[in-house]
Amino acid sequence: MTGGGLRAASLVLAACAFTACSGSDGAADDESGPPESSPTERDGGDPTSTDGGVVGAPDVRVRVGGEELAAGTTRAIELGSTREGGFTPSVDVVVENPGTGPVSLSASNAGAFSATLPATLAPGATAKLTLAMPPTAVGAHEATIELKTSVPGKESFRFDLRGFVLVSTGVPLNPYWTTAPWKLWFEDPTPVTFTGPDEDGNTHTLEVAPPPAESRRFPSPAALAATWPGVFLGLETAPPSPAAAGWWDDVSGTMDRGHSKPWQAWSGQGGNNVNLTGQFMRLTFGSPGGPQRMAVGMNFASESYAYRGHQLTRSTGNVVDIERNSLFANTLRGSPSFYSYSEVDADHTTDNYDGLYGIAYQSLGRSSSETRALQKMFIAGGFMPRPTKELLKRHGLYATVMLTLFRQALPYVNADGSPVDYEGEMIQRSTYLSDGNAISEEFAPNNITFHQYNDTMHLFRMVQGAKALTTAPPVAVMKLLDVWSSTANGAPTKWAATDPRLKVRGKTITTIWADPEETLDVRIDLGESIDLEGGELDFSAKAVYPNQQSALVIEREGKTAIFHVRATPDPKLPLGRVPIILQAHVRGLRSNPTFLNVFWRQPDQQTLPANAYFDATRTGSYGMTNNKQMAVFWNARPTLTTSLGAATTIAGTQGTPVTFTVSCVDPEGFSTRLYRRADDPGTLTNGAYSFTPTASGSRDVALICSDGTGAFASTKITIEVP
Prior knowledge:
By secondary structure, the protein is mainly β. Helices cover 11% and strands 30% of the residues. The chain has ten helices and 43 strands. The strands form eleven sheets. Strands 27, 28, 30, 33, 34 and 35 form a six-stranded mixed sheet that branches. Strand 1 and strand 2 (67-69) form a beta hairpin. Helix 5 (371-381) packs parallel to helix 9 (455-467) and helix 7 (398-408) packs across helix 9. The radius of gyration is 30 Å and the shape is globular. The termini are far apart.
């Protein structure tokens, strides 16, 4: 186990096959069945006999997860972990009697586990053997429970159970808090009085309380079982099994006095609509600070201020405030990137973010453009299993998990149709289009296709990701250990902690400004990362932009959680941000992203104040006279063309392939790569596109080209089939 005191104690669980393994008494599987009966008994013996093979004989079948077990073997079952006084992990074993006589059943209980089942199973009946670990005895638990039957010739069925109960001390596993000041409505439903101003300055007061139990709605079994494409947003009046959390303990609000308001209904494709009016706590006024947000238990907050863009990530003070009082206090903040990012120039993107980050959500657009993304995160959270949702909220980690789900679910693929890397450039960005179907002529008239995606598919994938979280994902926490710099003519110099070039030192983001010819050696420690389930974490680090690998050497220090990054300026690469994503992994789950951002400034680029932005119409402390000073990530856009020339529509015929070629060239000479949207038709191989229509209609094909250093170009081809 790596790391400091933030993580729960770990339990390494042995993996057993679903056949005989440790815990079995070594008996071989019984393949012969009951002893063979005599011809007389078979032809007309006593019908009440319980000997094998005669009328009235009992039988037994045992299934776990749909798989039938042979008697005498052992099934290993990992019940995971819970907290003292928390939910009870359990598993159901199906027991059947296909015979014509009754079966007597008994199960031995061991240690902290229990087994419940009926004493007798009638002919043709089915029962459940529930194996459970009540969350009372703290510590690691192991036991073998035997299911015994009265069926002649049948040996016991054995279940190796393992689990872990964590101590409930009231101390959250959180990078900032040793006591939890945030409201947990599922623990304390006492109403809270909320007071705040509206846009006109009028003060309002609201008594905040969860909706009554009898009016609460939950994802329906049909919605939980839906596949794509399908209707996955149905509601019902009772919690399904396994219980999806619903929304009754969620709070959505505003931080701009109600200029942007929490939504209540969402509508998408294929009949996927949901109206959650009255299903959650909704604040439509006020500008609550951290203590007020935590007092009311706010989970999602919109703030449509023009300057709530890159400056939130530009200084340690801003970042630490957001991490401490929002991200790691169950509140996800969403804002527009009004002054921070646009695609209005044909040859480049105006990007004022000097680094990537995971502390808040930034939308492409202006006021309220962030709310659609918050909607999807809010909806997906209702599909999370109730125990996981409560565990995350208890520790203040709910917001970072929901933002991670948003990123993971973005429906993009590589040119060959394979999934894109979560760590890569198509997923990790500074700004996102909240509604993947939107068209932003104001902010992205020259590259809108790069930002678009199937919005309904995105929400479906978010729902699937939330639904699958039967255990809490890990949460990555970074710590900057040291920075050294050197030039070709000088010895390495260790930076002081107060060096002004250390722009950001947070728990999830570190941003360092370097001079154009300066090589940096940076050490980052992920050892304080958190797994609420007590597992042993692994770690990874990777450059986000593929072509920036030449500027980076990333090495892990042995099996520790420490990574050494050497960042060397490459004259072949454009100056600007070089982001490295660092993560924690456990149980096949990945953590939130943390970022080390190395930023090589341009020679005439000033060190800007944290809250500065460019606006040619403004003067004074925030007005900038040189746009280049603010467009910190200045990179020429690649050129994407097709063999269709200027045409963006092509006529097709059913049964006949539609083909064209795609070419992408970067003016700075960087290698390029193509990406697509997950739901688009056809194949793209070595720049050759092909699609054979089988029905009439209109289909869009989005093509996205990257220069591998953060600049993109895109186009959309529409195939019309009469």
